Amino acid sequence: MDTRFTLELTEARPLLRRLSRRFTQDDDECSDLVQDTLLKALTYRDKFREDTNLNGWLYTIMRNTFINQYRRKQRYFPLAEAARESYFLNVEDNHTFSSPERKYAWADLWKNIDELKEELRTPFKLHTSGYKYHEIAKSLNIPIGTVKNRIFHARQVLQQRLV
Q: What is the C-alpha to C-alpha distance for residues 157 and 104, in angstroms, rounded to an integer?
């Protein structure tokens, strides 16, 4: 049984090579897939039944091997992507107000906010402090639409002044 089984596996190698092209076009990946298939066939030869189609059994092993390798790559690919993206953790952030030059921009921004009309300044400051529209409306005793409108106009005035 073992000698005949090994001989049949050897004879099936060209067929497996052709079948591997259904899964990948890369020559190295095809060779690896054929090799993995044959190795698994030898490892699990006791699972093979004499009355079954050897080529069909080998194709099933090849397909399952390919699927498992594909899933493994998909599972570990995000880790590689995250490692590549971690480069940006060490890049200087020019979008914050932490640099000395930005300190003046921050002070200028707050100066302009303080110069807004009271009716625009109060809802805007509350909103930038984290309050929700409905909370601001309730505390100022004005409709929520008015709150949204005043915050919108405060933003427009600030954008015009800071450009």
A: 19
CA distances 73 to 65, 81, 82, 106, Å, are 12, 12, 14, 46
Provide DSSP, 113-137: HHTS-HHHHHHHHHHHTT--HHHHH
Domain that holds residue 63: 2-88
Given a contact cutoff of 8 angstroms between Cβ atoms, the answer to whether 155 and 124 are in contact is yes
- The more confidently predicted of residues 2 and 55 is 55
Has residue 93 been placed in a domain?
no
Of the given ranges (29-43, 86-100, 118-132), which has the lowest mean pLDDT? 86-100
Q: DSSP assignment, residue 25?
A: -
Structural domain count of the chain: 2
